[in-house]
Amino acid sequence: MIRIMQLCCLALCTLIATCPILAQVDSKDVLIGTKLTAGFDMGVDSSEGRRDWLEKNADDGYFKLGYPSGQSWGAVFITVGKPTDSNRPSMDLSDYQTLSIELKADPGTKVIDIGIKTNAQPDNGTETKIPVKLGAEWKTYELPLKRFKGADIRSLYVVAEFVFADSKSQTVYVRNIKYLTRAAKPGD
User: Fold this and answer.
1) In terms of Cα–Cα distance, which of 37, 53, 11 is closest to 172?
2) What DSSP string describes 126-155?
3) Could you tell me the pTM of the whole model?
4) 35-77: pLDDT as tens digits
5) 3-class secondary structure, 176
6) Which alpha helices (H) appear in the chain, and where do they start and end?
7) CA 47 to CA 97: how far, in whole Å?
8) What is the pLDDT of residues 77-132, one digit of tens each?
9) Which of 5, 7, 56, 182 reaches 20 to 30 Å from 48, CA-CA?
10) DSSP state string for 79-131
11) d(CA 71, CA 52)
12) Cα separation, 14 vs 34, whole angstroms
């Protein structure tokens, strides 16, 4: 009888681990190093139409956001599907509570704004953005999704954006972006 219970338990554990419906997913990767996962794309823009300031460093596994001077704003954004102005796709990320991003910056860059946006929100900068203080060493920042007021996480189009709002050049490095089912750790 004990042997049968052990076999049943083993079979159930195997089923849970291999069945995508029953297995709990703790995170959804968006960016691993410099590799976007399936279904995501990336764009870059600025007030003066500059789109040449995003560099991929595949050897070291990060993107360099070299925001140029003379702009009134600039953004690097990760979208569901290719960036588009109309008929935007979306993704339901309501199973998640936290946006996790690894960042660092060159000296002189102190803060960057992080945002997310639904497929219905306009591209006018009014979406909620969270300012993040940056340092020279890699750090994982965890942002509670509930802080992004106005962004319905059941229909996200921009799953992560990095917004610069200064006319001075700044350099930020990013890698490893994911959504987590657990609450954000305090302090970010």
Assistant:
1) 53
2) -S-EEEEE--SS-EEEEEEGGGSTT--TTS
3) 0.85
4) 999 999 999 999 999 999 999 999 999 999 999 999 999 999 9
5) strand
6) 2-18
7) 32
8) 999 999 999 999 999 999 999 999 999 999 988 899 999 999 999 999 999 999 99
9) 56
10) EESS--SSS---B--TT--EEEEEEEE-TT--EEEEEEEETTS-SSS-S-EEE
11) 13
12) 33
* CA torsion through residues 19, 21, 25, 29, sign: positive
Amino acid letter at 36? Answer: L
Q: Which two tokens stand for residue 15?
A: 């089923």
69 within 8 A of 109, measured Cβ to Cβ: no
Cite the beta strand spans of 33-81 per DSSP E.
35-36, 40-46, 54-57, 62-67, 74-80
Reading the block at residue 21, the tokens are 């419906």
User: What 3-state DSSP class applies to 170?
Assistant: strand
End-to-end CA distance of the chain: 52
Residue 45, φ and ψ in degrees, nearest 5: -160, 165
Count of residues for the chain?
188
The pair of structure tokens assigned to 109 is 């860059």
